[in-house]
Structure formats: C-alpha cells, structure tokens
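We include the pair:
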Amino acid sequence: MIEFRAFAENTFEVRSKSDGMTFTGYAAVFNSPSEPLPFIETIAPGAFKRSLDSRNQVKMFVNHNSDQVLASTRSGTLRLSEDSKGLFAEATLPDTSYARDLVVLMNRGDVTSMSFGFSVPQGGDSWTDNNNRTLNEVRLHEVSVVTGFPAYEATSAQVRSIDVLAERTHLDANDLAVALTMLENGASLTPEQADLIGSAARALMIRFDKSSRRSLGFYEKHLQLISKR
C-alpha cells in the first residue's frame, strides 16, 4: 500500500540560474508528530537512507499528478538527501507552463507544502502501546509540491474507504484504521485488534443461500464471456 503524507508551512526557495529555476525544500521532517491519522506518527532520522542508497527512480510531481513532472533523480534534475532536519529536495524545474505557474505561487507564499508517497517494508515501522507509530524505514516512491493538503494527512481516499467500512460493519472507524494499518505493514496485532478485523470480515461475509449462489453463477459466466473476448 502506498501512503501519502504532507507537511505544511514549508520554507521553499526558488532561484534563477543559467540552467533554469532551482527549487529547494523539505519533503519530510524528522521527529515531528503528525496530526491524528487517527494514530500519531513520527519519522525517525535515517528512515529514507536505504531507499536513497538504492538509487531507484524517484520523481517530483505537482500534487502527486504524474502528468505534471517537475524533476527526476534518474535525469539528475532531482537531488534528494537526508540531513539532521529531514528529507531535503533540490530540483531544477522545467520550463513548462505549470512549473512557471507554480513558481509564481511559491514566490507569493500561496504554496508552502510538500508531500511524499511511500510504502513501508516489513518491520519498517514500530508501534507503542497507545498506538503511536514510528516510521523507521520507508520505500520512497515520489515527492510532490502540493497546493492544498493540510499538514501531514492521510490520503482522503484511504479515509473514505475506512469510513465506508466502519458504516457497513457498525465498528469504530478510528480503531479500524489503526488495526488495518498495522495489519498492512506486518505489525503485531493485539487480541482486540485481531478480533476487530475478524468482526469486520464476518460482517461483510456473503451468506451462501440459493439466491447468492445463483448470483455468483451469473457473474462467473459473465467473467468467462469477457475473458473470451
């Protein structure tokens, strides 16, 4: 699962050089408690080290939009590094209309947020007894300059899906969010969290009466027809 986190009130710097506009800013900050996700999360120093050392392709977007590329590590237009504060990004921006528009907004102070997309390898995070999460190692997928996200938020799609699940199963959304995040990242579950996930699964389980078997048979035949086409 790819997660997204955004940091507001960043200090961006944009300078004009002979090869174009150079941008600098922090995509992530260490040891800074998040807003409730609903759990509280912090990023440990060194969390990006292994990902950066692997030299995998990382791109910089506008608002996580892959159609609006600002820079990439493979081309050398994006330089990422860790320092004592966090994940530092330096980019040579392209001479495109959306990049020029973004520079105007950053220079005016209208845009002050960066975000990063990541996944957590097994064992890459740790949890406290009161469900606080620390990211010790992450796989970095992309960074973005963002124009509207509040500080350090979970993706709205992820929040909506948990709200729908909670409504359908009549379970607490916050407890579900914590339990599912721990499950997805291979963290140890408490007996209560395991029971909660089991309760959600049982609530959504199809009851196999005659009508449901007929419905499943119809969808199976429909899928077979599609696959033949």
